[in-house]
């Protein structure tokens, strides 16, 4: 069994049932989500081992979060129990032209206050094949950024493949550093980067000058600057409405531009975590299918399926993804 | 803050969950609805003050109804506590080609038995900018019709804008009067009337004779007969199915025919109250945007959004409507 | 009131709420389903009398199943109370390209172990106009097959119309007999058969040789071999996705091929039991409308409506079906 | 199987979940209740046949009520479908010292407006062993009182045992008659009367003058005045709190005063319908056990068990009652 | 109508349904609670006007909290919309010997960061008869303490009665001040203080030396030190178990020690907010009944009733309290 | 961390919500239970490692069961995925004198059909400190009995403490063996046996002849016959009602009879699994507290707490048990 290790915050997700507005809700559905953990959870369903590294307070809510990781089959033995609170997000699920809205309440979480000294990455990463992190993590606090850097350095040293989801929300990054100061060094230890052209330009200070083929141009410049990076991937979402999205992905692997067709998701159940589902599928493709185009296709099929599942994690198995990947989108009843 | 006063019945709404047939339901979702109150509730979310005038019995159900008004931010201080029961409607929510069905159980409600003497309209309307009523109200009972007439007369006297939703259900009107006997006088105190050409012809005894431009012709005749009426508006719903509607609106403002495009609502959550949501948006447009076309556009965007919200009331805010009005129907997740 | 008698297993249906994966569910919605009983239940809503013949254990679960039959208006007085368990199926409801999945747990149910001696078919069928069975029943056990044969023979003797849903799942049939050994004799007592061309070929050992008009050719061969069979019907489902199906039907009545247009079901609520709903509608058409094409049209309209209702049974009434059959698919709110 | 026929109104029961106050509830649990129907439903669980005679409107709510009767195993074939509405009661479930509260909304129900001409009692009562009615029925309307009188007269003529629950709520009786004008004649056709001494005095104009043995004295006077009456029974509830009641019963059978001990119900789930459960158990005792004291004991054991079941009806079986009756109140888990 | 103004934090309350442990819960019931606001909400049900002063972030959660205040009938017009988050507490409801547990997550809430300059107390308190605060408020932050001091000074100046719930949790008070530095000055503006002897000793540095009558002695010393204080009250809870409490109260009013008997709450539904319910009832007694003993009795009856209601607020009315106060604890069904 | 290994069947538990009768339920709460697994789950909460050995079918239901084990923190890596079904039990939760009822549907489960060859006990038990099994396991099938014997033999060989819950249900044991043929050999490898005197007599063919001290006498005879057995324990439940139990335990440890007082559980939430909770607590006492009386006391406190928790497993932690054990049964709110 291949093994992935992921690192990042896990938030309590409190969502309104039945498309209710937050104002109407008299109860919230409660689960947990976290972009990196979601990737690992996907891979567990695909037959991988996964361990997630994070921090929770040592109280009833922290124990609940740990139990959720175990439920997903994600190894919780490297979770540090310290700090005061689990970060929270409230989700109001939209429909048609009404957008879903998230209210974050994550400041001062246990993860934000982690002490990078508490992680023995050599031990944590022992036996792992893959390490994955996301740009939200170093945005949260200096400690998280430091721990992330320690992790990628160690992974590199141990010969573990590193994938980086270079995504940043400008409204995080409140501890005095900019993405431009932090992300490039982290990226320099990466094998695979998920980033849009815009992200590449803004974060790495690169400027695309061509008129056509901008994404490829950006990827080339990035790979030149950071020779460890072997592949750059990006997903593309067409938002017809909150209930109807289309999803595709592409990759520059240093040699050619690979692109998938669009998956058409006409009746969305839950859109949160679909990007993570893509990455889970993509990593499966890299490790098991060992083919770049198939990796993208497996990823987009997985992402499409995630739109039909409540919660942050993709709970489908390989045969379900393969069916969609092979073009069977009929949803025919299986008995 | 502009202020609107509305007058009309509020019913207990008991709807089946998850598209259940009434026969299947072992519980009902319970909320309240009333066409005029819904208009006021919309406007509260848009920053208006709103007061609703109605009657409830002074029992646990009446108190519940009052608390619901307050929850919506609607002033309940002019609610009369007398009478025996809150009217009820049972809602079986349909899907695709299966129609939603409503079973009304509203006879002899507290509102139907109101005594028009109990309303001091001068005091109630003090400080108001707008008064709104609907043709259902005078259909319910002689007392309700009388109170409604008192209200519009007083509003007119105080210089308050009066909007009238001239909509009537032929199966109401059981107290011995016809719509033709009652509605024209009420309409004569109106500034703005919501009515279809068919309604205009049937209620006011006017007969359109042109082949083209029938709506405009009807409006002109109406305005000639009732010179206080300055604008006639009408909405247009294309019912693709119970799950998919399209919604547009038009206005004759005495000078030109204004028409919006169609909002396409492809995955309806709850269709009840969408006409009221249109009116709420329209009134916002009249008072705040002060532009007739924008009023219609704001109204149709608001109506479209209401289709995605459970319950009778539109709970969206101005920025949500503005996004849709400006053409952004992507429902893109807001963080 | 016309009367139908049906015979077959009734299973406890445990489905996940809100499109949950089985792994996520902390509760299951509980109802009962059974293909033949579903047909009878449809017809009760259309004004028929219906009795269902089956077996349940004499325990709390068997009593619950009986009460459910009564709730549907299906006569439970011929239910045998013996055996150990009610068969179960777990339903994970899919969406878009994610298929619904059923986990059957029906082995050794009370029905599978029925003793054919326990049914006095002369008495059971007294006063009935129609008898219906399905190919799943004789697949379950030798006893069930024997009882089914007794039933159709008696029905034939009493001049009762027999309809047979010749549908078989190859993964049943575990008691030592093949469909080919059992189904033809059963079919030989049928007036109307529901079967695809493929089923006809596989079960009856007939081989269509024409290039075009294969279904008609198969029907002709079948009718030649089994002269009691007067009509062969088949439904046709286009599976756009798990959320969107299209449904049509056709019939060879010995003289002409009749075909309906497609019903387009764009937002599926529950797809289980839709074929049974078709049959219920079709039988209504045969008995009441006495017109083959209208029977198919009434059946497909009924089947379409069933897709919008949770549970195995179609709970719509004749006016609801007639509206759809007449082309009104607007789902316009009925007050 | 012995057969009971009951006559009376059936109301939609809308209760708040989890001890919520009505003001808090965002949903109501929905079931149906009616004192006479509850008696019949109890007896179905004890192996009787039962038919209930009432009226429902011919709409979705009336159909729902009929289906509920069938679910209970109560024959609904004598239900008249006419009138406008199903009566409703809202139930706020109390606890400890907080009383449960009921808001009735039953005026002008289908039952209140029944036409006594619509009931062919000779046919309805054919084959019945027992007829039961309650004092609420003749309180509702002149028509209901008339139909009730027709029923008891016919029952008497046919030699059917008649039991009468002489219970009246003074706040009903709004149609111009007093209980004193109506109930005595109805009682005169009864074999068994359930009434307190106070009821006997108030309704029949009898006045107990002894200091001790008042109940017996009242019974004697009643039986002298109405010689058809053979037994008078009464229940006795000690209300420790809304969560804790004690329940006993007594009978004067013309010869001796029989009294049961108190059943102690320490954790009440639902107190509504417990008196009806007593009567169901009592009638079982009269018909099957044929012993007056055992009838009272079976009745009180049944009533005690009903306090532990949600809804208006007692759903326990004979063995469950017998266990309690025999003194086993341990509630020991049955596997 | 008398009017009360309250000041303090309002927290989102997320509780597990059906006695679940937090680890088990897949949803949380969502409501709001705050000790001072709860007092005001009680009084609204008793016919008072109430306004609550607090701060919420101007986001969907803050708007939800405001709507909840309005639902309760509490004036939300003095709520300041600023800051980042609504404080949260998670409630795991215990039973029998298993304690309920609360996980607080309230650091850095909008209320904790309030700016005392933002409150114009002269205006807020205009027309008020009573002002109430609790010792938690000044424990939260310097700003909250300052605002609280401004409030009581202004109230004193305006002749408004001030009640102070001198209760402190030692694990709050993290901003550098001790209760001993802050609470005495606040108390000095109070008319009525709720405090135990232990609190009086610890907070005010007073030391009781008598063996008997310690509470009275402590009260006397307190009143001597703070002559504005006219009455000191304390409640007394006997915790038989998490499901069974007994509740009493006492007062030293400068002249005599008044004590109530114990209310026995044998089947607790929700124990949170019962102390606030006592205070609400007590204040009602002071203002309306104008009798000290009756105030305590009304308060304990109200507190007892609150134990039977889910959520933080007492939703009972005066007649319900009066019944319990007069000794009727039967919980007899009210129709 | 000490480590326990347990072996036995895990059943899907489908229970009715809110004390509903099975007949009423329209949904079931779904969780899993199994007596041995429950013991391990308790110990996880007390800080142990636990692994459970069982068999599930390799389908969605088997995967769900595995995920539930992980959620509990129980190692699922020795679960064999083979066989056809997960056994089921339906639970109707009683109250007061109404007994809870269980309908088992466990025949032919994956566990019943396990192949003892599939377990490598040397490997499974590596590093374990304790092995626990229950008498239900060898009752299910010959394979289960064989695997159980292999397990205890290996445990004995490896010096692992073996505890045996010698409890048998006579209505299991359908595969041709009697408890008397199987259980004694299994018991002979045990260190600790949980059994009543009656069980000892019936299973081991021992006959107590003394009048007093029967339990001790039985234990002495058992230990003489099976010298490996060092301690015999038994629990004692007084069933006041389904809502109120009392629970105590005793032990003969070869030297003295130790007995605890009774825990009084006055408001039971869920009684299932409380015996397993006792054993979990007892084993904690043996391993950690290393004191026989304290083991019994910790066990009974744990069992008492389990009665307040929904589901089969005890989810309390050591401090919660210690509080009850030390006599604090107040259930005082913890903040």
From TrEMBL, chains A, B, C, D, E, F:
Gene3D superfamilies: 3.40.1190.20. The keyword Manganese does not apply. It comes from Emticicia aquatilis. PANTHER family: 2-DEHYDRO-3-DEOXYGLUCONOKINASE_2-DEHYDRO-3-DEOXYGALACTONOKINASE (PTHR43320:SF2), SUGAR KINASE (PTHR43320). This is 2-dehydro-3-deoxygluconokinase. The keyword Transferase applies. GO terms for molecular function: kinase activity. Residues 1-314 form the Carbohydrate kinase PfkB domain. InterPro entries: Carb_kinase_PfkB-like, PfkB_dom, Ribokinase-like. It comes from the Bacteria. Keywords: Kinase, Transferase. Belongs to the carbohydrate kinase PfkB family.
């Amino acid at each position: 069994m291949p093994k992935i290790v992921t690192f990042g915050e896990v938030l309590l997700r409190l969502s309104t049932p039945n498309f209710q507005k937050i104002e109407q809700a008299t109860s919230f559905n409660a689960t947990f989500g976290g972009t990196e953990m979601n990737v690992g959870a996907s891979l567990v369903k695909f037959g991988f081992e996964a361990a997630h590294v994070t921090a929770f307070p040592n109280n009833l809510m922290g124990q609940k979060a740990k139990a959720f990781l175990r439920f997903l089959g994600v190894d919780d033995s490297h979770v540090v129990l310290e700090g005061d609170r689990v970060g929270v997000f409230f989700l109001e699920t939209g429909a048609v032209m009404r957008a879903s809205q998230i209210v974050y309440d994550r400041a001062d979480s246990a993860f934000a206050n982690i002490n990078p000294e508490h992680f023995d990455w050599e031990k944590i990463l022992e036996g792992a094949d893959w390490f994955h992190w996301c740009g939200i993590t170093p945005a949260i606090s200096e400690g998280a950024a430091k721990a992330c850097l320690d992790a990628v350095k160690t992974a590199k040293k141990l010969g573990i493949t590193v994938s980086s989801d270079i995504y940043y929300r400008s409204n995080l990054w409140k501890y005095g550093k900019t993405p431009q100061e932090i992300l490039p060094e982290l990226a320099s230890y990466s094998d695979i980067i998920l980033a849009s052209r815009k992200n590449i330009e803004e974060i790495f200070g690169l400027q695309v000058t061509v008129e056509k083929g901008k994404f490829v141009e950006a990827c080339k410049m990035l790979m030149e600057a950071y020779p460890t990076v072997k592949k750059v991937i990006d997903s593309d979402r067409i938002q017809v409405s909150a209930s109807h999205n289309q999803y595709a992905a592409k990759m520059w692997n240093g040699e050619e531009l690979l692109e998938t067709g669009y998956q058409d998701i006409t009746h969305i159940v839950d859109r949160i975590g679909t990007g993570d589902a893509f990455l889970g599928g993509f990593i499966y493709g890299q490790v098991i299918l060992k083919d770049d185009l198939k990796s993208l296709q497996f990823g987009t099929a997985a992402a499409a399926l995630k739109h039909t599942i409540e919660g942050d994690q993709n709970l489908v198995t390989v045969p379900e993804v393969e069916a969609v990947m092979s073009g069977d989108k009929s949803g025919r009843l299986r008995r």
